[in-house]
């Protein structure tokens, strides 16, 4: 089934049985600050509207997504056996039809698969999760040679919009001095951080060389994307990945 034109079909050379979607703010029934395709139940939105949006999403998926209770950490769970929301920021799946999902509104979604189409994963990588090792933990849980993995970086707060303090810079540079290139001095004790570069560095350090995406800024495009940094009260989009039964 063809997804709505306003949504994102990741452009990456994943195996044919790897399916992925990233929603935008278009195509739903929510109103106000969460207009229109808000998928987050914990936003300032009418729950009936959110459930209607999730029902619309379901028509493009083989199963109900295995939603997570995201806590900006580095815990990874097995979506195949997940029966209810768990405190985690990434999930993996090996069974056909199991949909891994993360919600986003500035934090970077990282979709992963292997080149044989045997395992997929979705990670929610804001600066806290990224610096805590959510990418490394996800790759470890996938349990395949990292050289066989492909990654796609979805919409996130871009390098011209993400102002952070020295504590954020230190969290990355103290781990790897090469991370300094992802921070541009802005003003006293403030830096502009490039999540996409930081994500690519973490992936490369794990041995993942085939990385795609990483161009869409949520903050600078209010027509397409929700952004917590920009609006505070806002909806949530979703990045989803699964294996078909083919």
Structure description:
This protein is an alpha+beta fold and 246 residues long. It has a domain at 18-159 and 214-243: CNF1/YfiH-like putative cysteine hydrolases. The chain is 21% helix and 24% strand. It has 6 helices and 12 strands. A hairpin with a 2-residue loop joins strand 9 (183-187) and strand 10 (190-193). The longest helix is centred in the first third of the chain and has 12 residues, at 47-58.
Shape summary: globular
The fraction of residues in strands falls at 15-25%
Radius of gyration: 17 Å
The beta-strand count equals 12
**What are the segments in which pLDDT stays under 50 over at least 5 consecutive residues?**
none
**What spatial order of strands do you see in the largest sheet?**
2-3-6-5-7-11
CATH architecture of the domain at 18-159 and 214-243: 4-Layer Sandwich
